[in-house]
Write a structure and sequence with these properties.
Two copies of one chain form a homodimer. Chain A is α/β, with parallel strands linked by helices. Chain A is built from 23 helices and 16 strands. At the A-B interface, helix 1, helix 3, helix 4 and helix 22 of A face helix 1, helix 3, helix 4 and helix 22 of B.
Amino acid sequence: MKYFRSSGLILLGLFLVCKPLFAEDGYRLWLRYEPIQDAQQKQRYQSMLQSVHFPGNSPTLKVARDELRRGLSGLLGAFPSLTRSVTSDGVLVIGTPASSNIISALHLDENLQAAGKEGYLIQRLDINGKSALIIAANSDIGVLYGVFHFLRLLQTGRALSGIAIAESPRIRYRLLNHWDNLDRTVERGYAGFSLWDWHKLPDYTKPRYTDYARANASIGINGTVLTNVNANADVLTPQYLKKVAALADVFRPYGIRVYLTARFSAPVEIGGLETADPLEPAVVDWWKQKVGEIYRDIPDFGGFLVKANSEGQPGPQDYHRTHADGANLLANALEPHGGIVMWRAFVYSSDVPEDRAKQAYNEFTPLDGRFRDNVLVQVKNGPIDFQPREPFHPLFGAMPHTPLMMEFQITQEYLGQGTHLVYLAPLYKETLSSDTYAKGKGSYVAQVVDGSLEHHRISGIAGVSNIGTDRNWTSHPFAQANWYAFGRLAWDHTLSSAAIADEWIRMTFTNDEAFIRPVKEMMLTSRAIAVNYMTPLGLHHIMGRGHHYGPAPWVSQGRPDWTAVYYHRADTAGIGFDRTESGSNAVSQYYPPVAQKFGDLETCPEKFLLWFHHLPWDYTTHSGRTLWNELVHRYYQGADSVAWMQEKWASVKGMIDKQRYDKVKAFLKIQHQEAVWWRNACLLYFQTYSRRPIPEDYPPPDQSLEYYRTLKFKYAPGQ
Amino acid sequence: MKYFRSSGLILLGLFLVCKPLFAEDGYRLWLRYEPIQDAQQKQRYQSMLQSVHFPGNSPTLKVARDELRRGLSGLLGAFPSLTRSVTSDGVLVIGTPASSNIISALHLDENLQAAGKEGYLIQRLDINGKSALIIAANSDIGVLYGVFHFLRLLQTGRALSGIAIAESPRIRYRLLNHWDNLDRTVERGYAGFSLWDWHKLPDYTKPRYTDYARANASIGINGTVLTNVNANADVLTPQYLKKVAALADVFRPYGIRVYLTARFSAPVEIGGLETADPLEPAVVDWWKQKVGEIYRDIPDFGGFLVKANSEGQPGPQDYHRTHADGANLLANALEPHGGIVMWRAFVYSSDVPEDRAKQAYNEFTPLDGRFRDNVLVQVKNGPIDFQPREPFHPLFGAMPHTPLMMEFQITQEYLGQGTHLVYLAPLYKETLSSDTYAKGKGSYVAQVVDGSLEHHRISGIAGVSNIGTDRNWTSHPFAQANWYAFGRLAWDHTLSSAAIADEWIRMTFTNDEAFIRPVKEMMLTSRAIAVNYMTPLGLHHIMGRGHHYGPAPWVSQGRPDWTAVYYHRADTAGIGFDRTESGSNAVSQYYPPVAQKFGDLETCPEKFLLWFHHLPWDYTTHSGRTLWNELVHRYYQGADSVAWMQEKWASVKGMIDKQRYDKVKAFLKIQHQEAVWWRNACLLYFQTYSRRPIPEDYPPPDQSLEYYRTLKFKYAPGQ
């Protein structure tokens, strides 16, 4: 015993903490398939899933079966036995009428017809007098979607007993847009670098490409634009098309088609032509040949996304042609192969317009009806550029003869980038549920987008991806929710933000209500909080120049409509952009009931106040506070609300794995620091015009305006 | 039964394959700690490890204990019980005389003295008449190194019974050099992007930083230069120093100090001075203040690495001062804090020298003895630039009054980049075991580097890192072996390439001899194979311009010593760079016995033939073949040997996890394609001079020289 003196007791405690062999790094997203904790629930599922009948050997049915096995093995601890027939209770029968004789013999024709090409049925049925569950679809991809839905039911603890689900997507083209460059940088990417390792393609295809496809298929995304809208013609060269084809091969079983951005000047840059004029026969022929070449490698190629005549990108206007001329050039080449053109309405002419917000409408409405059938015009949710809050884009409803595709941003360019917790479903829903009044009351943006308002043959929705090489795909663990929510709303825009948050939390973290309640509350409030500490009351475009990181309402140099002062128009008299009749009259681009509502101070929602009106600092807001005091109130409330989120998060400590808990905690701390930075920088700056004090009940900013103005972020990501 | 018709039997087979929940993605490197498969071996270990005595609460002892727990739990299935004392057989006792009374009472003084500051003892001993194992050291970091060594013994299946290990490093500064930029691109990085997520530092420190530190500590690396030698002064601003300090905090418990690259013009760029002249008092003062600022944040900051007056980098010569003036400026500032300067000898003057290979020697030997005590001159292994094969750098042995630090490349800039299997230990060993004859026969490069030849107080070795954001750290699974081998040789350069490969394979893959034998054979041959298909017989610097990807012996534009033709000097008469007396006389930079050997065709090793001699195409080589035919033979042999590696790899299918097996297989296919590309492109090009046929027994190239010349790789990684 002589060697022992101390420390033994302390030591004993040190070894008791048990660590799992693999940390929860977020890689598995919402497809974690952790064992179901509720023993009774698990037993109920097991009794209804005693065996599985799932024949078929197409690539898509194979991956669906793989997913079912992965899911049920994880959730239930073991995969049910396989059966040839239904001779006892508790059989899960899966397939199409073509792949499964059992499904075929059920004569589900009518129900299946409604499911369409991508839909499915999940039902409890008696087969041979035995209680069974079926997942049935018309197509293999419908089966895959049905399997993911079925697994989601188990992941979220839903009852299966009386189940009768019939699902089909409301929108045909449900796409991610990757703003990924060939050097693997990602414009407005905050989660590392591009997933596409172009250099090693086509010979090496990472397993991660498959997991990317699984995640997208699980939420119904059926297409992906691989390249940045600020396009590079090199991706259309044979060297790169082989690489694109290799990705398409990986994605195909998951129902995901690849699309590319087409640089309008490609015929000159890689084709050796002297012009890219869309009416020039040699150009027409070049695109026809090029598209033919693409389809030889990629028979199900989706089509092109084009940013033309905007922010320096080439386009048909370089040759005095219209956007329709440009879009139709590509549409004609793609049409024989079944491809589409998505032509972006986000245009910046080389001239500075009277009001940047009016430009897309002015350029595009005259072209309505002049696009080929396989063209969609892709419109951002608002008329400026993915601001924390914008009114809906006036083009929605204003081009009845053209299918308008929605472009949402999933990446958080103006919403805290990689480190702020901002759940975007409420933003998406706010836009989709806006009433355009295009065909009278009830003409919602959602109905413009899904094509139902004008009975368009095709419809589409795109989300600018927030995915990168970060191990958890999206940097912020909660940014996964935005990818998820975008996909779910693209499939069914009638889902509520709360319902989507609920299922995402359950799948991603836990079914523990004690966790779900506060976390869902955080998520549902988070976007309003970010608006408050960044751009309350309709302010917009007051972020840092170039990298768009942090506040910089003082930006005044360079092209006027790329500055901040152009948009907030603060002066000693007041603040805000007068877009009423007395100003730019941008309100007139909306249908009269909307124009009237926004244009009239009495009816304009306060959230859009300074978007549409320039108002004096002592203008009385709804709260009774002066405009200045209301601005102060909102900024402080925003920053304080992040502290509230920190408390909420602290309250769930221990309910989930340490790794994700710690990461969110660290990011909330950053978010709080940055919310205070936004608040202080904006208020100190606007105070130089308002010449009013920050009321005494608020703690004064602890840094000077000069300090904030000198901050530099040369290497901020996503530039 | 009416629903069943077919397909049941097929189905039954489909579900039998069992997949592990987590794929083996290589993240755990050689620290996998998988359960020991050999049951008898496991039992032997368990009986010798029935309990553990490991007191102490310093940060380093804590991480050492964490590692021991992680390792033993994985290897043995459970962590042994803890004990306060040695009262039975099978106790593992760990600590320093200060942390453990048991260790202290063993009076290991003499043995421990030899272990020095970083060394350790691992011994079987009787304590209180009981059989025990000890891991003892003078310092906490010695304990950590000892724990990693101990775990390695178990990982590699070594016997513990008669064990008596005393280890201490032969070289004091064992560093990784990261050529990482602040925008997270990595110069010559082929494994994704920079690990350092500068934007989120200091507030968020990724768990991966800790795993980086663990991996490095496990092989004895004790420092890391975070930033590119093509330096950016911004890292020395307060904003970035806070971020550097956060990394230093993570690394500190693992014995790893951080170093930065110092941009020589920083006093001008971020200091507001008008000059960076090293003799200017304001400059001297600026660096003194800056260094003081750094040490306030990072009390154990390591020092600076400097690339000056090379490839456009600023330096003292801009002010007509010497490299010694520049190095001493920084050394004086660092000296009071214990920091060092590593001043690189890789210089490119703005004038093109008569022979690029002679430049460093010419510039640096006159400065020998003029550097401060805390300066090391960092010299690349060869006189050109990390070629597949170079003779050792003539500076080794030529600056007896200056500690020369070795700079090896771990990243494979000229050795197949991210996809070629090239085990670099034989390259490192070839250089280290070269005899400089500086103090007569037996004056090996290794003894210059470890300081023993001239009894220097300090010594150092640096490896240019191959680590990036790729999940497996290094892109190629076998590139992990190069990181590992560098670290092991930095600790003990007497280890053999085979011994290092053996332990790496066992730890990284399996102890199965059926796997180890062929895989070790591949590894040990792989570098010779790469030399053959890239640059046989002493050829060098004939790779693609800029990105250095693939062959381009035709490069002739631009600065002469950045072309290929400058180095191979092929013409219709012959090929090779005459560096003998009749040519540039670079051989004269070596000590006479070496100069004589290289300069004389009779004694010049054939591997350096065209490095030192320009020879006619019909010169007779050792094989009896003409030089042209020998060149053809080597190139074909090289490419064929990659096919041989593919066969070797195919023979071990099923012995390891599918994910890594498949990745290596895919990369070997790429390597074979690229070996054929190197072979064809080089032979077709040199054939335009040799005007001789490729002998008929070799399959002719299937593409034209023109084809190879037109290949473009604009977005190749690492530029």
